[in-house]
Specification:
The chain is α/β, with parallel strands linked by helices and 256 residues long. 46% of the residues are buried. α5 (174-178) links the parallel β6 (163-167) and β7 (184-191). 33% of the residues lie in helices and 19% in strands. Bound molecules: 2-acetamido-2-deoxy-beta-D-glucopyranose (NAG) (7 copies). One 2-acetamido-2-deoxy-beta-D-glucopyranose binds at residues 191, 223.
């Protein structure tokens, strides 16, 4: 287990308790969500010692990982919403470069080497940390793109999460949808080649077969990734990102 805890960055991940305030939606461009600026969460090696909290947010990143400023800021935002938030390093210190067209980067190979067999154990470490070291009773998983699939995977029976939110999940498989065992909410982009309208409707129909509480929200003027990375000058994208965040917070407040 120790090798999982000493990746290149030497991190378990980000842990944020950004100062708890009300999560009441403030309208576009205000309130507890930060779209840019400096993250206040800290990185730490798995050494225990965090305070106890009943419910924690497990933040599952996109391929850009925990070093991406937007991921850190969003983890902070869940901290401000009242949840101890832990974002495990899903890539052992080597996430995708921020420019995927980087000539040295092969996304096909990257995704092949970061399948569930490689990723599940890293998520397990964070869950074990939250349950055994921090002592939380419930876990709310929030996942984005790459991490969205793992929000589904970890709200399955016995996997550790009690409720889940996923924004524009990628590579999600039907058996992973059928296996969920807790309430799940999803945010979808209007323009998403990884989840086009037919697939989105199919996923929604599959959620309807689970007999669990679920919700699916579609945000106009958004593209794949909008839950994390947006053009902060575009009002529809700002609205989409902020509302998807409050969608997750309300979901966790109600169902986790
Ligand atoms: C930061 O985000 C705000 C919206 O909250 C936007 O008005 C501003 O232009 C952004 N600043 C930068 C440097 O991106
Ligand atoms: C993390 O991101 C910062 C910029 O936000 C960059 O300067 C730094 O090199 C990155 N670190 C790693 C290990 O990628
Ligand atoms: C990317 O990786 C895949 C799988 O390893 C390989 O088949 C493909 O040729 C690689 N593409 C490039 C441009 O190197
Ligand atoms: C996971 O499986 C893929 C494909 O089956 C393989 O290429 C990769 O090496 C495996 N990774 C680990 C960590 O076992
Ligand atoms: C859809 O997303 C792709 C990839 O992000 C982008 O190139 C394209 O311009 C977008 N189209 C619209 C209509 O937003
Ligand atoms: C979803 O799509 C698959 C084919 O990709 C199909 O077998 C399945 O019946 C669809 N599920 C629902 C609930 O529509
Ligand atoms: C961001 O959005 C603004 C407002 O819609 C637009 O003028 C600008 O071109 C966009 N920037 C990028 C890089 O797409």
């Amino acid at each position: 287990m120790q090798q999982l805890l000493t990746p290149v960055l030497g991190l378990l991940g980000i842990i944020s308790r950004a100062g708890f305030v009300s999560a009441k939606p403030p309208g576009i461009g205000g309130g507890i969500i930060a779209l840019n600026g400096t993250s206040v969460g800290h990185e730490q090696v798995y050494n225990g010692g965090e305070k106890k909290s009943d419910t924690a947010v497990l933040y599952l990143t996109d391929v850009y990982g925990i070093n991406l400023t937007e991921n850190r800021l969003l983890a902070d935002s869940f901290g401000r919403a009242g949840y101890l938030t832990v974002a495990p390093d899903l890539f052992n210190g080597t996430p995708s470069p921020v420019d995927m067209n980087d000539p040295g980067f092969n996304i096909t190979e990257f995704l092949a080497t970061h399948g569930p067999n490689a990723t599940d154990p890293l998520v397990d470490v964070a869950i074990k940390y939250l349950k055994d070291e921090v002592g939380v009773k419930k876990i709310a998983a929030t996942g984005y793109c790459f991490g969205g699939r793992y929000a589904f995977r970890f709200v399955a029976e016995g996997k550790g999460a009690d409720a889940a939110f996923a924004a524009h999940p990628s590579l999600l498989e039907d058996d992973e949808i059928a296996a969920i065992a807790g309430p799940l909410s999803m945010a979808a982009a209007e323009n998403d080649s990884m989840m086009p309208p037919d697939r989105r409707n199919n996923i929604t129909a599959q959620l309807g077969l689970t007999d669990l509480p679920y919700s699916v929200a579609l945000y106009s003027g958004t593209s794949h990734g909008f839950g994390v990375r947006i053009n902060t000058s575009d009002p529809q994208q700002v609205f989409g990102k902020e509302t998807a965040f409050y969608q997750a917070v309300n979901w966790f407040d109600s169902w986790a």
